[in-house]
Amino acid sequence: MPQITSLTNKTIKELKKLQQKKYRQKYGLYLIEGFHTIEEALKSNQPYRYLVGTPEALNKLEIADIKADKVLEVTDEIAKSLSQTNTSQSIFMVLPINQPKSFSFYPGKWVLLDSLSDPGNVGTIIRTADAAGYDGVILNTGNVDLYNDKVQRAMQGSQFHITVLQHDLDDAIMSLKDAGNRIFASCLDDEAIHSNTLEPGSAFALIVGNEAHGVSHEHLDAADAKVYIPILGQAESLNAAVAAGIMMYQFVL
């Protein structure tokens, strides 16, 4: 397996660029970090460009079937330079960005993210959707970048278990409706229905809005119904990921 010891190595310099969105888009690649997420990628047979790590970290991987020609062994210094955490596990994977140009929506359980800006919220919602048995999560172009390192860490590999799409939300809503899904929008509104009393059926999509501004007016208008979670105490509102998690489970239990 190739061994790299220099921070100025061409491949290492290219991998460091993947920490920036513009280079992820340019190369069509992104970087994940940490044992759990990488093991989930390997278990799910995700195609990958490189597996990168220190000798000690590579030896700790619990997956044995790894292609040696795709493994790059690096020094602790290089691993530290690639890491975007304070406590690096010194292991990384480079994967292709795989977003289909078209997608055939089908009846199921979906979450639509309308311009969320917090990467932790986006990743947590995707992870929760995976845990609650949803089919997929759809992000419009106004959301934080799906391949942001903070989103990746918050997802903890759930992106390899369910469909996660970056897609125009107007088109997604129309296509989901055509496929027989009812559309619900989270909203604090006089017309909204208490989320605990809703019977969504087996084919639906829940729209979760931006942390500060909520679901956009055009997407509220496109929904079949608005839903809300009552605030029983004095807090002004719930965190977007927490509210989404409550409703996701209410809709399927």
From TrEMBL:
Cleavable signal peptide: none
Note whether Flavoprotein occurs among the keywords. Answer: no
Boundaries of every RNA 2-O ribose methyltransferase substrate binding domain copy: 31-101
Record's keyword annotation contains Aminoacyl-tRNA synthetase: no
Source organism's superkingdom? Bacteria
Q: Please give the Gene Ontology molecular function terms for this protein.
A: methyltransferase activity
GO terms (BP aspect): methylation
Keywords, in A-Z order: Methyltransferase, Transferase
SUPFAM superfamilies from the UniProt entry: alpha/beta knot (SSF75217), L30e-like (SSF55315)
Which InterPro entries does the record associate with it?
Alpha/beta_knot_MTases, MRM3-like_sub_bind, Ribosomal_eL30-like_sf, rRNA_Methyltransferase, SpoU_MeTrfase, SpoU_subst-bd, tRNA_m1G_MTases_N
Family, per entry: Belongs to the class IV-like SAM-binding methyltransferase superfamily. RNA methyltransferase TrmH family.
Q: What is this protein called?
A: RNA methyltransferase
User: What is the organism of origin for this protein?
Assistant: Holzapfeliella saturejae
Q: What are the top taxonomic ranks of the organism?
A: Bacteria, Bacillati, Bacillota, Bacilli, Lactobacillales
